[in-house]
Structures are given as structure tokens and as C-alpha cells.
Design a protein that fits this description.
179 residues, mainly beta, 7-stranded antiparallel β-sheet, 5-stranded antiparallel β-sheet, elongated
């Protein structure tokens, strides 16, 4: 969690958690409004995010809470940065920014957004703050209707009674499915 203070009127976007390398992976600026502060919290897990619409697969492995005591603003300019380890599956080109009043939803696509895959960030213009996450547009992701297997780990290996000259084993896997 990080807090930044803003003057009244139009403000430049500020990185949270550090100016040159914002560890919160977010920047916030305002087009108008009164002097204020803003708080951004980065949750490094998609745990707790629910009710993502069926048109989307995800979320990725993080989400943000953006809040402010700013009065009279009509537009906030946001930028969210992601890293490769945040991504689970699907085409990076199909990432979209979703917003909700709580992690439990209802989630909806942010209308004014732009994906910058080279810089690994999504910028957006919003009139309300809240929770934000990235998910994959199911129609563009290349994943079809099936779930995405993000992680597979070997739970156990057992020996089998083999005929002479053959060696086989039984491997049991657990997996974490998203989508």
C-alpha cells in the first residue's frame, strides 16, 4: 500500500511505491478536482476476486485497490503495469482492464483503456475509483471455452510391479485451474 498527495486541478500521473520503479505497479493522475491524497494497494494474488463475467478468463495473479479523498474530479488517469509472472495463459494481446466496487464484483470492462504490450502496461481514463484487475478477453485469447491450467505440480510418484525388462511408475499431479 502506498499513498501520494495531489494538488488541486490537473495533476501529472505519479507512480506509487517509488518514483522510478513503482513497486505497486500503478500510476494515478487527475484531470481536475481539489487537493487530496490517493492510496493504491497491490494484491499479489487473484485470490478473493470473484464473479468475473464469462466473457473474460482470469484474473491475472494480481489486482489493485485505488481510492482517494479527492472531491470534484471528473476523470482519473490510471496506468497499471504487469510482469510476465502475473500472466497465467492466453495471448497478452487479449488483456483487458476490469473494474468493480469490491473484489467480489460485479466486474465490468473499463470503457476507456489502451493496452501497451511493449511497456507491459494498461492505461485508462475512469470517472470512479475502486478495484481493478486484468483478465483475458475470452473471444480474443485463443483459449476457447476451456479453463487454463496455470500450474502443475507432481504430488507423488509410486512404483509399479513391472514385468521383467520394463520400468513404469505412477505419477499423481495436482493442478491450479483458472478461467
Amino acid at each position: 500500500t502506498a499513498v501520494e498527495r495531489y494538488t488541486s486541478g490537473r495533476t501529472a500521473m505519479r507512480g506509487f511505491g517509488g518514483r522510478l520503479s513503482p513497486v505497486i505497479h500503478a500510476q494515478v493522475g487527475f484531470e481536475d478536482g481539489e487537493a487530496s491524497s490517493a492510496t493504491v494497494t497491490l494484491f499479489k494474488s487473484g485470490d478473493g476476486v470473484s464473479n468475473i463475467p464469462v466473457d473474460y478468463i482470469g484474473p491475472i495473479d494480481c489486482f489493485w485497490k485505488v481510492e482517494s479523498d479527492r472531491l470534484g474530479f471528473t476523470q482519473a488517469n490510471l496506468s497499471f503495469h504487469y510482469i510476465d509472472t502475473d500472466l497465467s495463459c492466453g495471448s497478452e494481446d487479449s488483456l483487458v482492464l476490469l473494474t468493480a466496487p469490491t473484489p467480489g464484483g460485479p466486474w465490468e470492462r473499463v470503457a476507456q483503456q489502451q493496452l501497451h504490450t511493449v511497456g507491459k502496461r494498461v492505461t485508462a481514463e475512469v470517472s470512479e475509483l475502486g478495484y481493478f484487475t486484468l483478465a483475458y478477453d475470452a473471444a480474443e485469447s485463443g483459449l476457447g471455452d476451456g479453463p487454463c491450467v496455470k500450474e502443475i505440480a507432481c504430488d507423488s510418484v509410486g512404483e509399479n510391479a513391472d514385468p521383467p525388462g520394463q520400468d513404469t511408475m505412477t505419477v499423481t499431479f495436482s493442478h491450479n485451474v483458472t478461467g
